[in-house]
Write a structure and sequence with these properties.
Blueprint (H helix, E strand, L loop, with lengths): L2 E3 L2 E3 L5 E3 L13 H13 L10 H10 L8 E5 L2 H16 L4 E4 L8 H5 L2 H4 L11 E4 L15 H15 L6 E4 L2 E2 L5 E2 L4 H11 L3 E5 L24 E4 L10 E5 L1 H8 L12 H16 L2 H21 L6 H8 L6
Parallel strand pairs: 5-6, 5-7, 7-10, 10-11
Antiparallel strand pairs: 1-2, 2-3, 4-12, 8-9, 11-12
Helix pairs in contact: 1-9, 2-9, 3-8, 6-7, 10-11
Length: 334
């Protein structure tokens, strides 16, 4: 590919491609508002985060306004992988425990910690295998549930996870999950699963982490964050990918209590996380989502395609039920 603009990409031979696959350029390739924000700030000031500058609190406040009041602290980094790494470090410091509960098929990044907590990586034939401080539980997808009414899938898988949790004698630092499991096939967690499991995680002393790297920023249409579709509030939220529309930025959003615990440990510093250009671009993405009503657009377009796929499903595609149902579950912004 040689160039791009909004939803299109162009190769060196003059061909145009509709980019319906990319999950990075959240408001479109080369969006003028985002480009202008980056250009202006780069010409004005770009430095590391040892200095206070107006855009840092301005962007932080704008981002935190999208979250429940209990999530009032943000740590800026450079990617979703780095954010997940930091989130685990924060959870372990806050709880004093090391063990992490993860989901089957989960993926949370390419750092060593990210691989440790990603079944998609460590369970690969070429992977490192499951480490002793990792507790893995089944993917709570409705499709594979065969033991009763499909509406009972969430409670069934939650009960199994709670049994595994209660059998664990090592203490728990955190449970981490995507609201919709991307590398598992875009599988939404069964309704009721997180609502039943989160209180048990906290009873065991652990914190609940929602990985919103792929599901966040309004692309689900009806919800700005994936955890909202499950009716729960996590203790830590991890952000990345669409946050900077292709510019490398990520973040960890958490509570004051966890942030205070973390501040008592080894100093956290990121040379480029939350730098002025990143903040300018991140802020422009949030403003574009609002001003162009892109969350509402995601709901409209996603519902349209979802209905078309349901029509195909009724026309005899039941033998491909798994892949269709996975596709039907996400009101994508694309």
């Amino acid at each position: 590919m040689q160039a791009s603009a909004f939803q299109y990409m162009y190769d060196g031979y003059g061909n145009t491609f509709l980019d319906a696959y990319n999950n990075i350029p959240h408001v479109g390739h080369g969006h003028p508002r985002v480009v202008e924000a980056g250009q202006k700030q780069l010409a004005k000031l770009n430095t590391n985060t040892r200095y206070l500058y107006d855009l840092l609190p301005k962007y932080a406040d704008k981002l935190l306004s999208k979250f429940p009041k209990s999530l009032d602290k943000v740590f800026f980094v450079n990617s979703g992988s780095e954010a997940n790494d930091l989130a685990i470090r924060m959870a372990q410091k806050h709880t004093g425990n090391k063990k992490i509960m993860v989901l089957e098929h989960g993926y949370h990044g390419h750092t060593q910690t990210g691989i440790d907590i990603s079944d998609y990586k460590f369970n690969n034939p070429k992977g490192q295998g499951q480490k002793s401080h990792i507790l893995k539980v089944d993917l709570p997808g409705e499709y594979h549930y065969q033991e009763g009414k499909i509406s009972e899938a969430g409670s069934h898988y939650a009960d199994k996870a709670i049994d595994a949790l209660r059998s664990n004698k090592d203490g728990l630092a955190a449970f981490i999950a995507e609201p919709i499991v991307g590398c598992g096939g875009q599988v939404p967690l069964a309704p009721g699963y997180l609502k039943a499991l989160y209180p048990e995680i906290r009873k065991q002393g652990g914190v609940c982490i929602s990985d919103e790297v792929q599901t966040g920023f309004g692309r689900l249409g009806s919800w700005f964050w994936g955890f909202e579709m499950h009716g729960i509030v996590p203790d830590i939220v991890v952000l990345g990918k669409p946050m900077g529309n292709g510019h490398p930025i990520g973040a960890v959003v958490t509570s004051s209590d966890i942030a205070t615990s973390f501040s008592n440990g080894v100093e956290f510093f990121s040379s480029f996380g939350g730098n002025p250009v990143s903040c300018a671009i991140g802020l422009s993405v949030l403003e574009t989502i609002e001003e162009e009503a892109l969350q509402e657009r995601a709901k409209t377009v996603g519902s349209y395609y979802k209905n078309l796929l349901k029509t195909l499903q009724k026309k005899g595609f039941s033998n491909r039920r798994c892949s269709w149902r996975r596709s039907l579950s996400w009101n994508s912004a694309y």
